[in-house]
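Weekly puzzle thread! Below is a chain. First person to post its structure in token form gets bragging rights.
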Amino acid sequence: MLVLGLESSCDETAAALVDGRTVVAEAVRSQLDLHRVYGGVVPEIASRAHLEAVDSMVGEVLAGAGVGLGDVGGLAVTQGPGLVGALLVAMGFAKGLSVARGIPMAGVNHVQAHALAPFMVRAGEEAAGGLPGFPLVALVVSGGHTSLFLVESPLRFRTLGRTLDDAAGEAFDKSAKLMGLGYPGGRVIEEMAREGDPRAFPMPRPLWRKGLDFSFSGLKTQVQNVYRERDMDREPADSQALRDLAASFQEAVVDVLIHKLEVAAVMHGVRGVVLAGGVAANGPLRARAAERFGHLALGLPRKAWCADNAAMIGYLGSLQLGSGQNVLGLGAEAKPRWPVPEF
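Winning reply:
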């Protein structure tokens, strides 16, 4: 069944057509240039940009696949978590299509969808070899979320740990801002860290031996302290000191993420792990995962599917529609703080 997926949870407007786990066509419009000047996502600007883009995104994927709305058998839309005004745009559009065309609609949890992104394939391509089977442990790391799950099946998740304060991606953004490096923080810190010494400055590894939850606010505070104590505001933007600080921060984040994922995998005796979400596009993190989990099946999404996208929404939505799980009516509401459901 051809499913149209829609995503507008934060600052990407996206649409995709999927057939099972095969991505037939997709389109994403980033709002990065709109928000960069403010140093972060402005909810009102994001919502207006979604309104302007969603119709054209749907038209683009239909044209790309050479199909019409009459060929679409199901709808999948991000119901949460995310910015409430942004979520309402895609949900409202999906509701209109559902009523006008009589198409069933599934409400998808954005974080849960990230965890399944490694299993998607593009039309005409073979599935990657060595993908993990179920059960597996999944770590979803993004600007808003850092969560560990035991995934018993694509539709059965159990939360093992979550961030208690800043998410990892948020810590990247805030640390970059404290260092005067701009937005988005993940990209610029990774670039700066390439020529930095990760052992130059001592950084904490929060909650290292304390369960499976995460905390990154103390790490961000240490970045701020080093920056101020060394008067780095007087350094040029490409100074070695800033490169070293970026590398030291990044190394600490990677250490914590990989350590917690490894502990969870051992605790639950799984043979495979997944690393997904926007931060999973980070090169050193991907390299460390490949090195540390060589004895296990490792699922890593394509870098393009680490970021927010509608293909993963369509894929999970197609599974939900097939099982009758969270099929929405017109009264359905957005869920900006929606934990991954444990059905």
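Puzzle host: Confirmed. Bonus trivia for everyone else. The chain has ten helices and eleven strands.
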